[in-house]
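Replying to the earlier thread about multi-chain prediction with a worked example.

Input:
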Amino acid sequence: MPELPEVETVVKGIKPRLMGRHFLALRGKVKNAVIPSFEIFKTLKGLHVLNVARRGKFINIFFENDSVVTLHLRMSGRIIMCDLNDPALPFERTRIDFEGKSLRFCDVRKFGRVWLSRLDECESVTGISRLGVEPMGKDFNLRFFRKILDSQRGLKALLLDQSLIAGIGNIYADEGLFDAGLRPERIGKSLSASDIQRLFESVKKVLNQGIRNRGTSISDFRDAQGKPGKNQKFLAVYGRAKKPCGRCGELLKKTVVAGRGTVFCKNCQT
DNA sequence: CCGAACCTGTGT
DNA sequence: ACACAGGTTCGG
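Result:
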């Protein structure tokens, strides 16, 4: 479910309420979702939060003593900020209690993960070390984008590859490709200079719009206060198969590209 | 590159 | 009953 804009929205919601707060306990039932083990999290007791930050689709909570709690929501994960004695939420799998507040990790499909690691090994343990550039950062520039598009792979596969650009998922890949007027299966190498320029701007544009609208809520996504985002109202193609293209009226087509359901306009996208 | 696996719910 | 879902990893 959550891609960069959704994870960014969650981080914005929890950061101000978590900064400086002291850790009490982590409890949960899904054993393989907590790495390395529930037991280890006892070492966090009494330590306070120094910072909360997003990296790709990961959330890092930095504690004193160089400990880091990392979360990944995968497909259906939610993180909701509750009071300590609020009742368990539906599909609540793990809870992280702080003095005065409690983070509830809810996840219907149990794909989400929680890690505890030392700062110096955090990236390798969690897989963050394999991530590519942040698309909203200054390392994501035209020069870099040209380099990764110089490839025989298709555009959608390239945009979804977290080791190239970190944070784009199925929604924003389809939306970015529509905005740039490019087919998802187009080969990277086949793009002209102006195609590359357009796709570069489109990717940033759709991600920014997602963040401004506090994320896309198709069914699962909720922010840290449990509220849905608004971006689903502004999607051009994702989830709109067989509906008319807002630009030309042609019925939008759904196919499978790079192993994922993909919606595009065969008229507007070449 | 592709399909399968990891899980559960929902829609056809 | 079957297909499909916002992600990632693994094996072929």
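The radius of gyration of chain A is 20 Å.

Feel free to reuse this layout for your own posts.
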